[in-house]
# Entry
Amino acid sequence: MRQVLFVQGGGEDVHDQWDNKLVDSLRSELGPDYEIHYPVMPNEADPNYAAWKQVLERELAAIEHGSIVVGHSVGGTILINVLAERTPQSTLGAVCLIAAPFIGAGGWKSEDIEPRSDLAARLPSDVPIFLYHGRNDETVPFAHVELYARAIPRAHVRGLANRDHQLNNNLSELASDIRSSDG
# Structure
């Protein structure tokens, strides 16, 4: 069974009222050969990099070789920055970011995440990276996925027409990419 770690976004009741629908979609699309782990992140209404990093480091230390990591919104931003700081001991199968805000020039400012000009160089070079963003996202502008694409030129970018910040709770493209990365 292949493991998927899904990191929620930030906001009041996001884990149980919003991102659970994304996890349900992914679970339905992937089927029984995948186990999705969906931890509740601390103080989800006001995400803090240091607190979420601590949880993610524990989660990443516990995953099996070939596991897929997925982060939505600020969860994706924190996930990619944690991965850039320290590569997990287990080799990842893929990294997937959904509607993640970009921190740095042209993106958003952060009080607790430093912009990285060397983001691509700090990520494992042999791990596929997928970026998903709805073109109708009113929470995180579509330009953020373009900033990530410039920062990580080898990333596979999926700009999805008529999809919102939650990708209309449809992760079929992400599931397809996960299945295709099962080399």
Notes: Helices lie at 14-17, 19-30, 49-62, 74-85, 119-122, 143-151, 172-180. Residues 14 and 44 are 7 Å apart (CA to CA). The longest strand covers residues 2-7. The chain is about 35% helix and 15% strand.
